[in-house]
Amino acid sequence: MSFVRLPIDPVVRARVDRVELPWNRLGLDPYGVSKVHLAEMFTAFGWLYRHYFRVRCFGAERVPPRGRAMLIGNHSGGVAIDGAMLITSAFYELDPPRLAQGMVEKFMARVPFISERQARTGQFTGLPETAERLLRDERLLMVFPEGARGTAKLFWERHSLVDFGTGFMRLAMKTRTPIVPVAILGGGEALPTVANSRALGQLLGAPYVPIPAYLLPVPLPVRMEVHYGEPMTFDGSGTEEDETIQAHVDAVKRAISTMLRERLRALGREPAEGLS
Amino acid sequence: MRVMVTGVSSPIARLVASELLARGHEIIGLDRRAWEGAPAGVEMHAVDIRKRAAEDLFRKWRPQCVVHMATVTHLVAATEERYRINLGGTRAVFEHAGAYGVEHVVFVGRHTYYGAGADHPLYHHEDDPPMAVSTFPELADLVAADLYACQSLWRFPALATSVLRLVYALGPTGHGTLASFLKGRYVPVVAGFDPLFQFMHEADVAGAICASLDQRLRGVFNVAGPSPLPLSVIVKEAGRRAIPLPEVAFQLMRGRFGLPRLPPGAVQHVKFPVVIDDGAFRKATGWAHAHDEDDCIASFTRAFPRPA
User: Fold this and answer.
1) How far apart, in Å, do the first and last CA atoms of chain B sit?
2) Hey, is the C-beta of A232 within 8 angstroms of any chain B C-beta?
3) A130-156 confidence digits (pLDDT tens)
4) Could you give the 3-state DSSP secondary structure of residue A261?
5) To 10 degrees, the CA torsion angle through A230, A234, A239, A244?
6) Of all helices (H) and strands (E), which one includes residue A168?
7) Strand order of the sheet with strand A56-58?
8) Is A1 in contact with B244 (Cβ distance < 8 A)?
9) What's the CA angle centered on A124, arms A123 and A127, to 5 degrees?
10) Nearest residue to A42 via CA among A24, A64, A70, A15
């Protein structure tokens, strides 16, 4: 139960009603996702999306309006602001609005209040069993294959990509799920991390705590961008040899890095080394 | 069909026996406790399943099916006694079933077998490991009884064994873990956590067990009713008031100040969900629950209104 009830914009509440999930009389789906909690989250995130980060979204029409799909994105910026803005983008920019369901770091479910908010908004601990079930239920899954290593990027590494895990690809092939590559810009500028304190993280039960130049891990109001790429499909069963899977993962990574590079050039900024 | 129901005097086993009787089966009920007003068609025997008298009943009456419900689930019972009943009793049922030509045994287990934890998947399948032994050690005897029952699938190949893992029962008898937790005016919860709870109506419990008998089901099956609900919603719909406590306070206050008595391991189940997928059972039996979540909570609340 939430101690703090957040304000709800009636327009957002009406939009939540258009999210195509199997709601019961109480406004809950079989995973415990709650319409009220979604409306609270999207009221707050909507303000951040429009007024604080002034997010610009490109290619939203490439996301399937219904049915299973995977959003595969790049991380940067200490905490997963990019994830929050991607979820918000799927809600506000798609028609009908869709709930992107993230695969969250395990430690988050142990943190009081965050655990509850996460569960009621469909952001579940990243487990292959849960991910597969969501896809078989025709949900929109959001995965950042760089994991915590992605959010741990320092400011000067913000446009680079670290190694992608391969689990998402095996799952996509097993469940015949289209992958939509997503490039997100601005996360690294919003929280310009200069160091990560693993000791402080250990104290709080987290992998690390990001330390920005101005010490407080509060995001700055910088402009962010979300670019959806063309959906990609990969045939197979997901049981293929590592080399085959890695080649497919590299193709997705390349699609993201190409979008990042092209956009950075268009903005007159130098792409990071390693962006192919 | 001649059906033996062990632990028949518990409120939910009575429903099972009554349902089987209504379907035209001959029923023999075993329980150390009495069943006042048992229907005329239920032949009651006040015996302990672990004693010789119970074996005599197997030999003389030759049941074709046994529904084993003689397990202790209330966690405040002395541990040693629970182990004797839950493990010794389960062992006796299967040994006698194997020795005296029983065709089908239904073991009625619990979904809490899977345990609750921050990194557990939502919707457990039957092949998931029994993590309750680490997350909720007080449930170890029930987990062991479940695993012991599973052994019979290969130990007694001629015997059809159904191991059912049922979610919490909720209904007008007020019997069961969840119902006991909800009975008071105030329900303690751990602040900052609101796990999904999965439950089914008592009548659906009886219906599902009967369906497994009808189909002579063989294997391990999860059995659930309507979709799970967050604990806070169940508490509110039942007209109770949730008292959010920090985890440390929850541990100190359980069993005191009118709050429910719970073992220390229970805190995991008040923080994290145990939710199961029962698709295999529904597919194998064609069974479907008749009571939705509103029915379950309303029937409980009518029988047990919020205490003044």
Assistant:
1) 47
2) no
3) 999 999 999 999 999 987 776 777 777
4) helix
5) -90
6) helix A167-174
7) A56-58, A225-228, A179-185, A69-73, A140-143, A100-104, A124-125
8) yes
9) 145
10) A15
The stretch B48-70 carries a mean pLDDT of 94
A268/A266 Cα distance (integer angstroms): 5
Summarised one tens digit per residue, pLDDT across range B120-157 is: 999 999 999 998 888 888 888 889 999 999 999 999 99
CA distance to partner chain B, nearest, from residue A258 (Å): 35
Q: Which CATH class is domain B2-303?
A: alpha beta
d(CA A226, CA B19): 59
Contact between B214 and B285 under an 8 Å Cβ cutoff? The reply is yes
Minimum distance, in Å, between the CA of residue B123 and any CA atom of chain A: 8
Q: Are B95 and A106 in contact (CB under 8 A)?
A: no
Q: Which residue has the tokens 């990019």?
A: A82
pLDDT band at B83 (very low <50, low <70, confident <90, very high): confident
- Does the CB of A28 have a partner CB in chain B at under 8 Å? yes
Which residue is listed with tokens 């290969």? B154
Q: Under CATH, to which class is A56-266 assigned?
A: alpha beta
Average pLDDT over residues B83-102: 92
Cis before A210? omega within 30? no
Out of A2, A116, A127, whose CB is closest to B119? A127
DSSP state for residue B124 in the 8-state scheme: B
Higher pLDDT residue, A274 or B162? B162
The span from the CA of A103 to the CA of A83, in Å, is: 10
Asked if B162 and B219 count as a contact pair (C-beta separation under 8 A), the reply is yes
Alpha carbon of residue B179 to chain centroid:
12
Length in residues, chain B: 308
At residue B130, φ and ψ (nearest 5 deg) are: -80, 80
Please tell me the distance from the alpha carbon of residue B289 to that of residue B209, in angstroms, as a whole number: 12
Of B238, B214, B235, nearest to B295 by C-alpha is B238
d(CA B74, CA B266): 12
Q: Is A91 on the interface with B (CB under 8 A)?
A: no
Q: How far apart are CA B170 and CA A108, in angstroms?
A: 31
- Which pair of structure tokens corresponds to residue A198? 């693993």
| Predicted local confidence at residue A1, as pLDDT | 55
What residues of B are in the A interface, CB distance below 8 Å? Answer: 118-123, 125, 189-196, 227-233, 235, 237, 242, 244, 247, 271-273, 277, 293-294
As to burial, measured by CB atoms within 10 angstroms (0-12 exposed, 13-18 middle, 19+ buried), residue B305 is exposed
Strand pairing partners for A181? A72
Q: What is the mean predicted confidence (pLDDT) over B228-242? A: 95
